[in-house]
Design brief:
With 111 residues, the chain is mainly alpha-helical. Helices cover 66% and strands 0% of the residues. It contains 6 helices and no strands. α2 crosses α4.
Length: 111
């Protein structure tokens, strides 16, 4: 890990800029803009979850059908995860993380 040392001059603390916020842009942001950004963020999160689920399955070298049978989840659920229609939550998300980190142990425990 790289260590960076910074010296602060107490005389300059009050004179520096107060952050990196563009106040004009912030004031011009409407509720519609915020809602649109939330929808975009949610869509990106679903795609990230889809990529993760697909990556875990492919690393195991299993088809969707084999994967669904091994983890005891319906084939439709696996397809929905990988297509970004649904996002694994709770225990399913935890299982995918375990399968990603320790696949042999997880599959042994599931058999």
């Amino acid at each position: 890990m790289k260590t960076i040392r910074v010296k602060l001059d107490p005389a300059r603390i009050g004179k520096s800029a107060k952050g990196r916020v563009n106040l004009r842009m912030l004031d011009a942001t409407t509720d519609a803009d915020i809602l649109m950004q939330q929808k975009t963020d949610d869509a990106e999160a679903l795609q990230d979850a889809a990529k993760f689920a697909r990556r875990v399955r492919k690393r195991l070298g299993l088809t969707q059908l084999e994967f669904s049978q091994r983890i005891d989840v319906s084939l439709d659920t696996i397809r929905n995860w990988e297509q970004g229609k649904r996002c694994p939550t709770g225990a399913a998300k935890a299982l995918l993380k375990i399968l990603d980190k320790a696949p042999e142990s997880a599959l042994l425990a599931l058999s």
